[in-house]
């Protein structure tokens, strides 16, 4: 009689919404994914699996849907569900301070025990971003095992047939068990026919029955991802899948992670390299490198050479996002700045710590096939919580000025703050201002994003709409289909040659137009926009630069001095002509203001005429009000005399799980001065922001 071969299947889902996400998004995910998934699971009592909720989402679900939490608790009590822990606010664990890693994990473990009556033994690692040093903090957080991707193991030299269980790893002698998630199963479930998954699982069955295959992925792919609700629930894929698991129980063992660990030993010891899932490592690469890497993979696949060498191909690392996107780095370094304040003041207040930890939520710090960094409301949430934490630690009742390398680029920045306003000045790049915090509002007025070329822009012409996808009649993984939310987005594909911040010093020529300025194709006459200024005094900068007048390259100095007075930020310019001739100048100081919506009726610019942030045009004014009634933001841009302004919206075209979309990233507002400057003469200009 032949020996029956068996295999263990460890299944789990990870449910997450980023801090600050819209309520309607949570409601949509609940109705399309979280609730129906549990309803189907309840009908299949022999299916065992794991589930992970990030802490912020768990609190939202508890508040909005208490009956849902009770149902999950009952499944846990019955032994059908195993709850995983993780960082409470879903941080990228390796890039936050060590003590925060432990404290965030312990906070979620405590919440899980309060809600579900069990201590979690396993852990979900945000975006599966692994660096060897975090094994110690995971172990110190009382976690026994963690799930990562099979790509982590392959990059460490393990072959596919070696990834049939868990391994031990350690850091400084602190051990943790690591399970590999099967990429094959991630792409099969729930996109392909159920039978294909069953066939794949059966192919891994052995006579000793020890082999384990892991599928642990986003819960939102079961109903929220494009086309999946119809596939998973309307057409009954999930019910069919669970039925197939139960009907094949003779050889297919549905087992929890804790049961597997308790009954089977580790395959061996391993040391995993810095890694994440393979797609993330492609997204993290700098744009040119990413394009070449993806072309290489495509070429190898066409030549049927990819699979044998896949384990030796590795993209970037997650931290590259911090160098790829200045905006990501600035949020990260503000977080570290506040961490230093917490350590310095020995802060133990849980309200402060929670505000600070919420600012570590990973989503706005990176961008791949999800909106992430490109979604201004997620960046705004990070700034809101970090600003609030800082305000509680350091209210700055008097003006404070610090000078140090804030963004860790090797050059000093200047931080100025009082109780109302905080700014970060970057002398090395045009003397620009990186951040304008309205401290009592928890609002960074700039919070914009540079319009960059992204590799996926090459595919915008091939994108299809959601309606067209529905007509295809089959769900596809978001890695395999190119969608667009609207047509005609090519007209918004502009690439900036300088980064989007404030008080950027421009010199325009006679041929400059608003259209060229908007598209970042105008001729810049000076060398001040992205070149270094010297620090002369506390908050006084100077650059000895030049401008083009015809074919002449003439020396010009700009001195700019920032000052704070209660609710007023003032910038004083002194522009000096160092040439031996009279020079006609057209100068502008560009300010970026993000009101979070370009067309909201309660968000507008008012210079005697109200217009939304999407307005494009020129006008003359001495005072421009910048209003967001929803956030209670009221800022006035003021000059000593009426001047001409150029104004236009900043739109990016990005790709997310919903397809290509146009996103409002703020409004460019540039007051301008035209004047003749005699040899060795100086022009003084004052510009004020009142909050």
Description of the structure:
With about 700 residues, this protein is α+β, with helices and mostly antiparallel strands. The protein has 5 domains: about 5-275, 7-stranded beta/alpha barrel (Alpha-Beta Barrel), CATH 3.20.110.20; about 280-315, no CATH class; about 320-395, no CATH class; about 460-490, no CATH class; about 495-690, Beta-galactosidase, Chain A, domain 5, CATH 2.70.98.10. About 30% of the residues lie in helices and about 30% in strands. It is built from 20 helices and 26 strands. The strands form 4 sheets. Strands 15, 16, 17, 18, 19, 20, 21, 22, 23, 24, 25 and 26 form a 12-stranded antiparallel sheet that branches. Helix 5 (about 135-140) links the parallel strand 4 and strand 5 (about 145-150).
User: What's the CATH class of the largest domain, please?
Assistant: Alpha Beta
According to CATH, the fold-level topology of the largest domain is: 7-stranded beta/alpha barrel
Mean pLDDT: 95
Question: Which architecture name of the largest domain does CATH use?
Answer: Alpha-Beta Barrel
Rg, alpha carbons = 28 Å
Which structural class should the secondary elements be placed in? alpha+beta
- Beta-strand percent range: 25-35%
* Unreliable spans: none
Biggest sheet overview:
12 strands, antiparallel
* Shape, principal axes of CA atoms: elongated
Percent of residues in helices comes to: 25-40%
Number of domains in the coordinates?
5
- Tally of helical segments: 20
Number of strands: 26
Distance between the termini: 84 Å
């Amino acid at each position: 009689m032949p020996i029956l071969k068996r295999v263990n299947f460890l299944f789990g889902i990870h449910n997450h919404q980023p801090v600050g996400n819209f309520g309607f998004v949570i409601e949509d995910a609940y109705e399309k994914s979280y609730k129906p998934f549990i309803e189907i699971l309840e009908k299949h009592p022999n299916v065992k699996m794991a589930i992970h909720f990030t802490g912020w989402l768990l609190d939202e679900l508890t508040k909005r849907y208490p009956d849902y939490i009770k149902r999950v608790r009952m499944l846990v009590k019955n032994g059908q569900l195993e709850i995983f822990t993780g960082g409470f606010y879903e941080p990228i664990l390796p890039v936050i301070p060590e003590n925060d890693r432990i404290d965030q994990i312990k906070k979620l473990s405590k919440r899980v025990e309060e809600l579900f009556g069990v201590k979690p033994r396993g852990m979900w690692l945000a975006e599966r971003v692994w660096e060897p040093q975090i094994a110690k903090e995971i172990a110190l957080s009382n976690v026994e095992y963690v799930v990562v991707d099979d790509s982590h193991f392959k990059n460490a030299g393990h072959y596919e047939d070696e990834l049939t269980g868990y391994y031990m790893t350690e850091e400084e002698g602190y051990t943790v068990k690591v399970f590999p998630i099967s990429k094959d199963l991630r792409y099969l479930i729930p996109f392909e026919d159920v039978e294909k998954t069953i066939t794949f699982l059966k192919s891994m069955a052995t006579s000793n029955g020890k082999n384990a295959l892991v599928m642990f992925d986003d819960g939102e792919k079961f109903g929220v991802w494009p086309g999946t609700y119809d596939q998973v629930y309307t057409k009954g894929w999930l019910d069919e899948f669970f039925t197939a698991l139960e009907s094949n129980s003779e050889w297919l063992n549905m087992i929890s992670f804790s049961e597997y660990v308790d009954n089977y030993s580790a395959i061996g010891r391993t040391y995993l390299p810095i890694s994440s899932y393979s797609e993330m490592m492609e997204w993290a690469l700098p744009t040119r490198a990413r394009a070449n890497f993806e072309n290489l993979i495509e070429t190898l696949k066409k030549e049927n050479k990819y699979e044998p060498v896949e384990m030796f191909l590795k993209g970037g690392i997650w931290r590259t996002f911090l160098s790829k996107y200045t905006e990501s780095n600035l949020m990260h370094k503000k977080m570290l700045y506040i961490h230093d304040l917490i350590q310095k003041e020995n802060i133990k207040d849980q309200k402060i710590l929670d505000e600070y930890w919420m600012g570590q939520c990973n989503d706005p710090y990176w961008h791949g096939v999800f909106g992430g960094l490109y979604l201004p409301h997620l960046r705004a949430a990070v700034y809101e919580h970090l600003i609030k934490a800082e305000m509680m630690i350091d209210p700055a009742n008097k003006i404070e000025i610090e000078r140090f390398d804030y963004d860790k680029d090797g050059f000093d920045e200047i931080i100025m703050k009082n109780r109302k306003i905080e700014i970060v000045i970057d002398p090395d790049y045009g003397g620009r201002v990186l951040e304008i915090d309205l401290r009592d509002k928890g609002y960074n007025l700039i919070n914009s994003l540079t319009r960059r070329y992204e590799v996926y822009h090459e595919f915008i012409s091939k994108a299809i709409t959601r309606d067209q996808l529905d007509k295809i009649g089959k769900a596809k993984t978001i890695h395999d289909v190119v969608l667009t939310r609207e047509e005609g987005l090519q007209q918004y594909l502009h690439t900036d040659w300088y980064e989007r911040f404030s008080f950027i010093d421009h010199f325009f020529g006679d041929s400059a137009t608003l259209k060229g300025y908007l598209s970042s194709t105008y001729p810049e006459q000076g060398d001040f926009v992205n070149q270094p200024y010297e620090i002369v005094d506390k908050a006084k900068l100077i650059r000895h630069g030049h401008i083009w007048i015809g074919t002449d390259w003439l020396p010009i100095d700009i001195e700019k001095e920032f000052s704070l007075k209660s609710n007023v930020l003032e910038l004083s310019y002194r522009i000096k002509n160092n040439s031996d001739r009279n020079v006609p100048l057209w100068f502008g100081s560009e300010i970026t203001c993000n009101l979070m919506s370009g067309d909201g009726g309660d968000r507008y610019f008012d210079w005697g005429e109200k217009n939304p942030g999407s307005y494009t045009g020129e006008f003359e004014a001495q005072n421009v009000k910048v209003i967001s009634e929803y956030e209670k933001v009221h800022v006035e841009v003021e000059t000593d005399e009426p001047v001409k302004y150029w104004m236009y919206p900043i739109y990016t075209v990005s790709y997310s799980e919903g397809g290509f979309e146009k996103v409002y990233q703020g409004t460019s507002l540039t007051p301008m001065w035209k004047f003749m400057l005699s040899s060795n003469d100086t022009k003084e200009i004052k510009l004020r922001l009142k909050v």
